[in-house]
Design a protein that fits this description.
The protein has about 290 residues and is an alpha/beta fold. The chain contains ten helices and ten strands. The chain has two domains: about 10-250, NAD(P)-binding Rossmann-like Domain (Rossmann fold), CATH 3.40.50; about 250-285, no CATH class. About 40% of the residues lie in helices and about 15% in strands. The longest helix is centred in the middle third of the chain and has 29 residues, at about 115-140. It is globular, with a radius of gyration of 20 Å.
Length: about 290
């Protein structure tokens, strides 16, 4: 089974937590891993080389192959540098795991433009920039695997995470289109919403919950989505604590009006419009 053997995979935000687990799992299964991490704090401030270097050393000491990269995913130049690292050291890029992230939580009425922009740039722009830099290479070789780190905060919402949730669900919209555009080039694109105990979640969930959420539970699903065998594309998976669960958009049959309805007509039929008791998997009505 080819799996990820000899595949060159970029993992962003791989200096700790989930990214570290992904990088180590991929390397343990034969992948050549670019361990990207800016080395900053949880809020995105600062930078350093220690985090990425430590993971690379862990991989190499276990017989794996990895190289460190310290570029920021939040800019086009940084993303291009990450892909250049893969090409320079390993001669190719086959997969991108867009995991890098920061947190700047706060209730929406206290949200600042700086905190909004910073989170959007790392998560949503980061997913865009790194995948965009890799995309021509994936198309040319007619093979590619893209995995975006979404979040249940984007799928379902979470108090104090308007910026984070918006960015994370934006990545779901991105993989939906990448799956369509990539299909004839052998490229798959999926998203995971991981549940794990990391520095990002240290003060978000009770300790007894975090104790059950080892990042190592998430890594195998990421590994499969990056593998040669995987043909799934355009899907979202909630993964953590032993659970691997697909989530998807559903739609009901709706109500069709022959002419533009009045406000009263909409109100009268609202219970039918909003009823999801017989809903089925959603499809794009215009494509």
């Amino acid at each position: 089974m080819p799996g990820v053997q000899d595949k060159v995979v970029i993992v962003t935000g791989a200096g700790g937590g989930l990214g570290r687990a992904y990088a180590r799992f991929l390397a343990d299964n034969g992948a050549l891993v670019v361990v990207n991490d800016l080395g900053g704090a949880r809020d995105g401030s600062g930078s350093g080389t220690t985090m990425a270097d430590t993971v690379v050393e862990e991989i190499r000491s276990s017989g794996g192959r990895a190289v460190a990269d310290y570029s920021s995913v939040a800019t086009r130049e940084g993303a291009e540098a990450i892909v250049a690292t893969a090409l320079e050291h390993f001669g190719a890029v086959h997969g991108v795991v867009s995991n890098a992230g920061i947190l700047r939580d706060g209730a929406f009425h206290k949200m600042t433009d700086d905190n909004w922009d910073a989170v959007i740039k790392v998560h949503l722009y980061g997913g865009y920039h790194v995948t965009r830099a890799a995309w021509p290479h994936l198309r040319e070789q007619k093979f590619g695997r893209v995995v975006m780190a979404a979040s249940t905060s984007g799928i379902y919402g979470n108090f104090g995470q308007a910026n984070y949730g918006a960015a994370k669900l934006g990545l779901v919209g991105l993989i939906n289109t990448l799956a369509i555009e990539g299909v004839k080039y052998g490229i798959t694109a999926n998203a995971i919403a991981p549940m794990a105990a990391t520095r990002m979640t240290a003060d978000i969930a009770p300790q007894e919950v975090l104790d059950k959420l080892d990042p190592d539970h998430v890594a195998p699903t990421v590994g499969y989505l990056v593998s040669e065998e995987n043909q799934e594309s355009g899907s979202v998976f909630v993964v953590g604590g032993g659970l691997v669960q697909r989530v998807a958009q559903f739609q009901n049959d709706g109500v069709t009006f022959a002419a533009p309805p009045s406000l009263e007509e909409i109100a009268k039929r609202w219970s039918e419009i909003s009823d999801m008791s017989s809903a089925k998997l959603g499809t794009n009505p215009v494509g």
